[in-house]
């Protein structure tokens, strides 16, 4: 047979199935060609297998017992009526009127409220010339405190830190006192002059002037009273003025015009006066450490 007479699908491969092959081999060969595993037959487990499934018995229920729903219902209707609990003789209340806030209203801060109250009090109350008098009182006290402290710090005339330290030579800490006292006077004078933080400034002035008053009392015990009476009276007057400013307040002609103590000092005055007296006593106790009335 020539090549032209060979069928198109004919080949020289020997894997062409034959009709005389075994059926099992033929079936397996089909799954093998398809790339699959031939199905297997799984036999059921025997009854003697210890891992066989356990069958539970159905629980026995006594269906002749009475049910809970068969119990008699002992319901008795209540004998009260709604009218028994209704209030008698009640006054009808009118419906509340709805109040709506203005969305355009301006909310003032605490500081602005104090300023508005201060302006209203200044315009509404007839204070006369009292604020001008308080201004003069503050200026006089502040001027003396500033003069006394500046002359010590800058050594004007016969006053200086060294001279003040020699004046305090009989005390325990003369060097410390010669610096602390002018500093207190300078700080109190500046704040009193502008009327700023007046309660604190007046308290500092009270501490400084009270110490100087005790210093003059100490000097008067060892010297002739006539030679120190002027300075003794002056220091006592300055201490009294500082306490007066504490109780009167700075007035509205000051930087504290928006504060309540500028017009009407209340409990703060007593607090700062007592604190200033305690500070003066402590400064004398630890700084001087001597008895001012016995020398």
Task: Describe the protein in words.
By secondary structure, the protein is mainly α. The protein has a domain at 114-288. 51% of the residues lie in helices and 0% in strands. Helix 3 packs across helix 7 (225-248) and helix 4 (161-167) packs across helix 5. The model has no long low-confidence stretch (mean pLDDT 77). Residues 1-88 are annotated as: Disordered. It is found in: Cell membrane. Residues 1-12, 23-32, 46-63 have a biased composition (Basic and acidic residues). It is a multi-pass membrane protein. Its main location: membrane.
Annotate the secondary structure layout.
Elements: H1 23-34, H2 110-124, H3 130-154, H4 161-167, H5 174-194, H6 198-222, H7 225-248, H8 267-288
Helix pairs in contact: 3-5, 3-7, 4-5, 5-6, 6-7, 6-8
What's the quick description here?
With 295 residues, the chain is an all-alpha fold. It has eight helices and no strands. Residues 1-88 are annotated as: Disordered.
Helix and strand composition category: mainly alpha
Uncertain residue segments: none
The tally of beta strands, per DSSP, is 0
Mean residue pLDDT: 77
Work out the helicity level.
40-55%
In DSSP terms (H or I, runs of 4 or more residues), the helix count works out at 8
Largest sheet: none
What is the rounded Rg?
A: 55 Å
List the secondary-structure elements in sequence, H or E. HHHHHHHH
Overall morphology: elongated
Oligomer: single chain
Ends distance:
159 Å
Biased composition (Basic and acidic residues): 1-12, 23-32, 46-63
Region (Disordered): 1-88
Subcellular location: Cell membrane
Membrane topology: Multi-pass membrane protein
